[in-house]
Amino acid sequence: MATILCYGDSLTWGSVPNGGRYPKHLRWPTILNELLGKHHQVINFGLPGRTTIWNDPFLEGRNGLSYLQAALETFGPVDILIIMLGTNDLKRYFNVGAYEAAKGVEKLIEKSKMPNNHGFPHPRCVVIAPPNILSPTGAMAENFDGAIEKSQHFHHYYQDIAVHNKCLFLNAAGILQPSTIDGVHLDTQANAQLAQAILTLIKDKL
Question: Where is the SGNH hydrolase-type esterase domain positioned along the sequence (predicted)?
Fold first, then answer.
């Protein structure tokens, strides 16, 4: 039995475009668990607004680096750690781009390899470059001002980080795009597509 920890933001948590949360069976970590079979455990540890390493002045507890070690100990031993973060890093008040987001992911990878008090082995890391941001609508349009172009560079920098750190890599933008309803979050089809792509990537590694 493998334990797979999905460490992400609202795209992992299961945000419905323009508000709400999908029921469990429509979120990609749950779909992945169904595809893998009940003998494996896929844990959804997504949190809306989570960043790689940045402290959000308007949302408490969103710094991904601050909570990763606790998550790995809480759910450990973790066999595979799936990291899909960076979309929220592109909010305009952080004033960073895809390169900095990728470097933030690298800090998370490094954190996952740090010794722990329980003798847990280090998890195998899967780095997922988030999907490109489309034209954000509503309240998100202001938050993600300038983020559309920045997000188009996710795959390049994330792949470099993944290769350098010997991680598995998936470019989400190559298989899906966000809902046109809000330009950021995933519809049900995209959740299913992502789960299937991750299955293909990891099934031989379990």
Answer: 6-186
Report pLDDT digits (tens) over 12-55. 999 999 899 999 999 999 999 999 998 999 999 999 999 999 99
Is residue 155 within 8 A of residue 173, CB to CB? The reply is yes
Backbone angles phi, psi at 77, to 5 degrees: -75, 135
pLDDT digits over 112-169, tens only? Answer: 999 999 999 999 999 999 999 999 887 789 999 999 999 999 999 999 999 999 999 9
Nearest of 72, 167, 66, 82 to residue 120 by alpha carbon: 72
Domains of the chain: 3-205 (3.40.50.1110)
Rounded distance between C-alpha atoms, residue 135 and residue 145, angstroms: 9
CB 122 within 8 A of CB 113: yes
Read off the tokens for 108: 């998370």
For residue 162, what is the DSSP state? Answer: H
First to last CA, the chain: 8
- Say whether the peptide bond before residue 57 is cis (omega within 30 degrees of 0): no
* Model pTM score: 0.97
**What is the Cα–Cα distance from 42 to 4, expressed in whole angstroms?**
5
CA distance 9 to 183: 15
**Separation of alpha carbons 156 and 154, rounded Å:** 6
